[in-house]
Amino acid sequence: MASSYNTIPPTASKVPEPFQVAIPEQQLSEFKALLKLSKIPAPTYESLQEDGRYGISHKWLMETKKYWEEQFDWRKNEEYINSFPNFKATVKIPAEDEEFKVHFVALFSQKADAIPIALFHGWPGSFLEFLPLLTLMKEKYTPQTLPYHLIVPSLPGYAFSSAAPLTRDFTQADTTKIMHQLMVDLGFETSGYLAQGGDLGSFVARGLAEEYEACKGFHLNFYITPTFSSPPKGIPDTPLTESEKVGIQRGELWRKTGAAYSIEHGTRPSTIGLLLGASPLALLGWIGEKFLSWSDVPPSTEEILRSVTLYWFTESMGRGIYPYRSLNLLLDTKTLKKSIGYSYFPKEICPTPVAWARKLGDMVFHKEHDKGGHFAALEQPQLFMEDLEAFVAAAWK
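User: That's the sequence. What structure does it adopt?
Assistant: Structure tokens below.
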């Protein structure tokens, strides 16, 4: 049961409120009406190609729309989400005289020496990516034996967390402050905590380790060097595995043919946010393509639609792409005197060789896998859990 893992640590200075996902029936009805009336344009030469080189196909969109209308049940997905302990915390940032509501899913341990771990999603992901991991943790441990406090926040602008302020610029640095304060409020400042991240979440994890002593280290499954296809400054040009050589070629291809979305998000976030917030079918096309092309084995139609529907009901698309405006500034790598771990998944969009990731800090764990892509926690939860536990064992001192 969700409730058996919901005991807030006694060291918490602020107790978050329990939360249940329950989209109002009117919203659900409006969504179904919009979806039904959404038109799929006539086929083109490009949309008839089913190999993904031009994006999603006409056939895929037709079939997925039909599944969305006739088989997808949001209420069952709510039940799935609510089977985990969900919370909302009020996080105050005194320097900005602001407060934010932060949604998170958690498995709290009843062990006094449990290790706090924050896991951060990116775009077009969400807290949903980590639910298979939490399922495996619940199967392996009871609340009395769980060695960790596992905290999975929705970043500002995503899911049920507050949006960025309307009155000022808001950057990834602000997100990092909020996530740190969440961990402090939960009682983890004295003990410290570890961070894990992929995609945009990797920048949050790195930022926490850079800015706050309480963050003792981090594990990443996504890291892009400033040099992209050559070793970063200070790292010798070491021999690469065959998988890593192929990965560099994959990254170069992604930069040439797959990174246009990032430029759009970073330069015209208002346009793309308003556009995709007006049509669930348009949102499916934009996000669905990423799940298909960035995964080793594409997620099921149900999994893709669960994520897209969550984005639709919470307006996460327009609210969540603010980090892309400052993304280029985040690519520079600072070498930290903290423990880091790195998992290499070959079908990542821009896989960086393990040796190059040593630029990040004191690498206490690394693992090169022969399967898995950008959504590693969702695609390969068992491997992801094994890596996370091995990293924690090496990093927590």
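The radius of gyration is 20 Å.
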